[in-house]
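Posting this for the archive.
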Amino acid sequence: MIRLTDAGETGIWVARRARGAGVGLAALHRLLELAPRRGVRTLVAETTADNAAALALLTKAGAVAETTGDRVAARLPVPAEPSPELADPAELLHAYLDFYREAVLRKLRGLSEEELRTSRLPSGWTPLGMLKHLAHVELRWLRHCFRGEDVDRPYGDPDVPRAEWAVGEGDTTEGIRAFYLEQCARSREIAAGAALTDRVARWTATDAPRPTLAWVLFHLLQEYARHTGHLDVARELGDGVLGT
């Protein structure tokens, strides 16, 4: 049984015989689907500090818990696409880019260090490696190519194969996340100070015209959409967390 009030207060009750079968995750996923339709932006679940099963479920989903005595209030932001009232192409493009930037971080929340560094697919990429790659994508397209900055190692360490995907022993989750957030912030700053018709400053392809900022941002958008789908698959294979 699941409950969702208009204020976002929620509760999930799973029969003993069904526990451990993924029912709780499926119920929480359903709540996240229903919440936007009711105007709910944050789910709030209350439990006790000794309810290990509930806390594990909420942590996996990326909820932030606040403990007061033996009571725990866990808050889980509800993913929401940009407003359907947006009509300006530039606003819509920037809004969807930010939606996917947050979606990537959301898909990584709740994963342990081992899970972040473990590949679930034959190609060998890891969730943390994906975040590192996307940070380099932001850096390379907006700073290196569009702005024309002299960026050190836009593809990562040249001595390491597929460096922007590689997570070394010296790489920390906090460090890669901070690097990613820094590049996203710089990308927003650069895009905000330019017109969509402006063209990249650095372009080495001689058989193609220099792309516009609009093309660059749409290229980033499609890359984010594809990679978010990849992370959806990795989460489902890893711990059963679905969608959103």
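Strands lie at 2-4, 9-12, 42-48, 64-68, 71-77. The CA atoms of residues 1 and 96 lie 34 Å apart.
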